[in-house]
Design goal:
The complex is a heterodimer of chains A (117) and B (114). Chain A has 117 residues and is mainly β. Chain A is built from no helices and 11 strands. Chain A is globular, with a radius of gyration of 14 Å. Chain B is mainly beta. Classes of the chains: A mainly beta (117), B mainly beta (114).
């Protein structure tokens, strides 16, 4: 079945570093991908909707200059956390929808655990 | 706008006992409803979904859920809990049309006691 791959699965870095997270749809095309953030013991909160070939749509309260999203192809979206600080430490999860399968649910990646020291 | 509530942030059951995880939703239009399971440090795995048709839906690992429009509920059940069912469970709602993003409930952590 359809699979979404996220890389890396875990990142530990120093404050001020920029971190890029990749989300790939492995065997289907995805015009739309979603980026979620999950703090410990909390639910997933949508950060932004990534649209292939156009600008991402950010949810209220999410800084677009802080969280850069690029969706340059139908199989890849990237989230870059710029100048990351400890408060950005979280679990980031992407999801993608299979364009050719019509009304099928989104497929989720396995997430990226980001820890900023 | 949609919203999802899950009664009980933590539920504990004995192995072999009935599992009941509650989900209520609010939506201005008939929604799509989902249950996902999340194991530690992993992404989400779809357990089951309701779109249209039969209101009792069966999913993987012996789970099922019933859509009750009058109660705006979509509770998740499993007749007999297994140790491997211990995880975090999220109920989610989406507007009709899978291109819409999901709104997730706060989650319920299920513990299974030996």
């Amino acid at each position: 079945g359809a699979v979404v791959s996220q890389h890396p699965s875990r990142v530990i870095c120093k404050s001020g570093t920029s971190v890029k997270i990749e989300c790939r749809s492995l065997d289907f095309q995805a015009t739309t991908m979603f980026w979620y953030r999950q703090f410990p013991k909390q639910s997933l909160m949508l950060m932004a909707t990534s649209n292939e070939g156009s600008k991402a749509t950010y949810e209220q309260g999410v800084e677009k200059d802080k969280f850069l999203i690029n969706h340059a192809s139908l199989t890849l979206s990237t989230l870059t956390v710029t100048s990351a600080h400890p408060e950005d430490s979280s679990f980031y999860i992407c999801s993608a929808r299979d364009l050719e399968r019509g009304n099928q649910p989104q497929h989720f990646g396995d997430g990226t655990r980001l820890s900023i020291l | 706008a949609q919203s999802v509530t899950q009664l009980g942030s933590h539920v504990s059951v004995s192995e072999g006992a009935l599992v009941l995880l509650r989900c209520n939703y609010s939506s201005s239009v008939p929604p799509y409803l989902f249950w996902y399971v999340q194991y530690p440090n992993q992404g989400l795995q779809l357990l089951l979904k309701y779109t249209t048709g039969a209101t009792l839906v069966k999913g993987i690992n012996g789970f099922e859920a019933e859509f009750k429009k009058s109660e705006t509920s979509f509770h998740l059940t499993k007749p007999s809990a297994h140790m491997s069912d211990a995880a975090e469970y999220f109920c989610a709602v989406s507007l009709r049309g899978y291109g819409q993003n999901f709104v997730f409930g706060p989650g319920t952590r299920l513990s299974v006691l030996p």
